[in-house]
């Protein structure tokens, strides 16, 4: 089963399909598919790290650029939208796509949150 899951994550679809097909019992094949759906711990950590770093990066860039806003929204957050679109459209595996979407969403949120927490003071 470990070999089947490893080949699945290495993109070796033919070997994975053959391993599932050659499983001794239906429950063994079910266990292989369940293990692939659950994902790996490193994938979960990657998505979480992407989300955390996205929020920090969005807030830092918002601050570095002088906290620009347009109609109450952060234009810096547009980079987060671009990253989210790339994650949705890219021909990558699900964990990588999830990391891009999570990072982009929290980047947008970090930039927007910074602009609301530290609004620009209107000069007279």
Describe this structure in words.
By secondary structure, this protein is mainly α. It is built from six helices and no strands. The chain has helices at 2-9, 13-21, 26-38, 41-64, 78-89, 94-117. α1 (2-9) packs antiparallel against α2 and α1 packs across α3 (26-38). The radius of gyration is 21 Å and the shape is rod-shaped. The N and C termini lie far apart (69 Å).
Structure summary:
Helix content is 73%, strand content 0%.
* Biggest beta sheet attributes: none
Portion in helices: over 70%
Shape: rod-shaped
Strand count:
0
Structure classification = mainly alpha
Please give a handful of descriptors for the protein shown.
rod-shaped, mainly alpha, 124 residues, 6 helices, 73% helix
